[in-house]
């Protein structure tokens, strides 16, 4: 996020902020809860950079301390078992998984360190917000904000200005919209 061309300040408010409300990912998730497990069928539509469609079958425990989830992607013939996100620090999580691809006859494992902060950890914030319409119907929104905080500097006797202010910037986008339909077994 450059503050302008050739290090100059942006010339208008339009250059200081952008907000994109057109999501690049749309998910439709159907979930069924049976005897302590959640079985899900996900239809995932990706708009950028290419139009793409994926389907997934997901199985995971309903327990609060769930430790794993199983994912099967029928089109890619890919099977994975992922651990839950394990907190390493307050803002840093570790996730590990093992998988097999039937088309390539390959088995391997992956690990991922993730945080709600993206990029360099300072200039980007990513999050998901959930909204429950009524029992069994939820919407989840994945959003991102890239920002540069305003900066005020000054100097005396160095040839630099006594007072200098640079405007901050904000570039926000709605990246993902998920509709989640859940059918739970009635309590007996």
The count of β-strands is 15
The amount of helix comes to under 10%
Order of helix and strand elements from N to C terminus = HEEEEEEEEEEEEEEE
Low-confidence parts: 1-6
Whole-angstrom Rg: 22 Å
Number of helices: 1
Give the rounded overall mean pLDDT. Answer: 84
Number of domains as seen in the coordinates: 1
Q: From the helix content, strand content and strand pairing, which structural class follows?
A: mainly beta
% residues in beta strands:
over 45%
Largest sheet: 13 strands, mixed
Structure commentary:
The structure is a single chain. With 188 residues, the chain is mainly β. The chain has one domain (16-182). It is 2% helix and 60% strand. The chain contains 1 helix and 15 strands, in the order αβββββββββββββββ. The strands form 2 sheets. Strands 1, 2, 3, 4, 5, 6, 7, 8, 9, 10, 11, 12 and 15 form a 13-stranded mixed beta sheet that branches. It has a two-stranded antiparallel sheet with strand order 13-14. Strand 3 (37-46) and strand 4 (52-61) form a beta hairpin. It is elongated. Mean pLDDT is 84; it is low at 1-6.
Features of the shown structure:
13-stranded mixed beta sheet, 1 helix, 188 residues, DUF7781, disordered N terminus, two-stranded antiparallel sheet, mainly beta
Q: What order do the helices and strands come in, and which of them pair?
A:
Elements: H1 13-16, E1 17-20, E2 25-34, E3 37-46, E4 52-61, E5 68-73, E6 78-83, E7 86-87, E8 93-101, E9 106-114, E10 117-118, E11 124-134, E12 137-148, E13 151-153, E14 164-166, E15 169-184
Parallel strand pairs: 1-15, 2-15
Antiparallel strand pairs: 2-3, 3-4, 4-5, 5-6, 6-8, 7-8, 8-9, 10-11, 11-12, 12-15, 13-14
């Amino acid at each position: 996020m450059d503050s302008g061309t050739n290090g100059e300040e942006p010339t208008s408010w339009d250059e200081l902020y952008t907000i994109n409300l057109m999501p690049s990912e749309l998910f439709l998730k159907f979930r069924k809860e049976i005897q302590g497990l959640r079985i899900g069928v996900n239809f995932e539509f990706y708009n950028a950079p290419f139009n793409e469609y994926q389907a997934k079958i997901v199985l995971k425990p309903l327990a609060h301390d769930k430790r794993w989830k199983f994912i099967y992607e029928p089109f890619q013939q890919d099977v994975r078992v992922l651990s839950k996100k394990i907190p390493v620090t307050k803002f840093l999580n570790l996730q590990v998984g093992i998988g097999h691809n039937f088309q390539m006859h390959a088995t391997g494992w992956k690990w991922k360190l993730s945080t709600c902060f993206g990029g360099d950890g300072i200039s980007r914030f990513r999050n998901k917000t959930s909204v429950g319409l009524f029992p069994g119907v939820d919407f989840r929104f994945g959003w991102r904000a890239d920002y540069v905080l305003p900066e005020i500097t000054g100097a005396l006797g160095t040839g630099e200005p006594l007072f200098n202010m640079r405007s901050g910037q904000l570039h926000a986008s709605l990246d993902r919209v998920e509709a989640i339909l859940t059918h739970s077994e009635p309590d007996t």
